[in-house]
Amino acid sequence: KLKVMVHCSHSPTPMAQIVETLGEGDILTHAFHGGVNSAAGDGFDCFHLARSRGVVLDAGFAGHIHTDFSVFQKAVESGFLPDTISTDITRYSAYKRGGKYGMTMCMGMARLLGMEEEAIFRAVTSTPAKVLGKETEWGCLSPGRKADIAVLEYADEGFDLTDKAGNRIVSTDGYRCVLTVADGEIVYRR
Q1: Cβ atoms of residues 21 and 46 within 8 Å
Q2: Taking burial as the number of CB atoms within 10 A of a residue's CB, which of 17, 28, 62, 141 is the most buried?
Q3: Can you tell me the distance from the alpha carbon of 169 to that of 159, in angstroms, rounded to the nearest whole number?
Q4: What is the DSSP code (8-state) at residue 8?
Q5: What is the tens place of the pLDDT at every residue in 48-97?
Q6: 62 and 33 Cβ atoms separated by less than 8 Å
Q7: What DSSP line would sit under 89-157, residue for residue?
Q8: Neighbouring C-beta atoms of residue 166, cutoff 10 Å
Q9: Does the pLDDT value for residue 25 go beyond 80?
């Protein structure tokens, strides 16, 4: 089955209507955007519908462009965590976001906005592997799998971001990579 990924922010269509066109395994990215036709607009009923249809909810943070921090936080408080956390980073946008934007910052943003650490790590490891049909190869450490490992620490790696709605989040701490192993070889050590 071909999977579809829908960029839903700033859509003229209500999110529930978008979700009704998606099926199991399809991905709704930027699911926590604000403004018109956001998930908060219908009290997250569209997320109930997405879950019942097997639609993957992706944070698609895009720095602070396609995520409304208050919507994300209210969704988490309502029990609607993203299935996957992605950066939506491109080589053109990486340097426009302060030069240190990446997966570890997205993880720190999710933590500051209420996600538990276990859920964050699941959303950047095992769940994306499953979504991509690679759960037997990627996403967890076990004998016979590729040894791709990132060792992170939660330390003085702060950030200060304001979303398009004016919601500001500030943290003096965040995740930072101290060691990376790719295919069994150390490729980075802090």
Answers
A1: no
A2: 28
A3: 8
A4: -
A5: 999 999 999 999 998 778 899 999 999 999 999 999 999 988 776 666 65
A6: no
A7: --TTTGGGGTS--SHHHHHHHHHHTT--HHHHHHHHTHHHHHHTT-TTTSSS--TTS---EEEEEEES-
A8: 10
A9: yes
Q: Give the residues across from 175 on adjacent strands.
A: 154
pTM: 0.93
CA distances from 140 to 34, 55, 135, 173 (A): 33, 22, 8, 26
What six digits make up the tokens of 178?
């101290």
3-state secondary structure at position 16: helix
CA distance 41 to 34: 9
Orientation of helix 117-124 relative to helix 103-112, angle to 10°: 150
State the Cα torsion 190-161-5-48 to the nearest 10°.
Answer: 110
Close Cβ partners of 160 (under 8 Å, ≥ 6 residues apart): 168, 169, 170, 171
CB 2 within 8 A of CB 23: no
Q: What pLDDT digit, counting tens, does each position of 141-186 carry?
A: 888 777 789 999 999 999 888 898 999 999 999 999 999 999 889 9
pLDDT tier for residue 28 given thresholds of 50, 70 and 90: very high
Nearest residue to 58 (alpha-carbon basis) of 80, 20, 29? 29
